[in-house]
Amino acid sequence: MSSNSKSNKQSRTNRLLKALTSGDSLTASQITSRFKLAVPRAQIFQLREDGHNIVSKPLKNSRRAPRIVTGKQIGRAHV
To answer: Of 42, 50, 52, 78, which residue is least crowded by CB atoms under 10 Å?
Structure first.
């Protein structure tokens, strides 16, 4: 992977983090379309590994039960 590709992906991940920090609640589909991230689950996992407290919960009234991630309680985990 080229350095330009890595920095572009990092930029998209930073924009995702900024959106979550500002209080946006997003589904995986919204993350994919809005931030052009092919595998939103991987980016959320990485942000959690970096110490960010990102909460996900199933949506009600949905057959496939998509999960929504929210940044309402986002912040650094205390270690």
So the answer is: 78
Buried b (16+ CB within 10 A) or exposed e, 25-57: bbbbebbeeebebeebeebbeebeeeebebebe
Confidence of residue 34 (pLDDT cuts 50, 70, 90): very high
Q: Which of 23, 47, 49, 43 is nearest to 31 (CA)?
A: 43
Residue 67 has φ and ψ, to the nearest 5°, of -100, 145
Biggest CA pair distance of the chain: 42
Say what the pLDDT of residue 78 is: 47
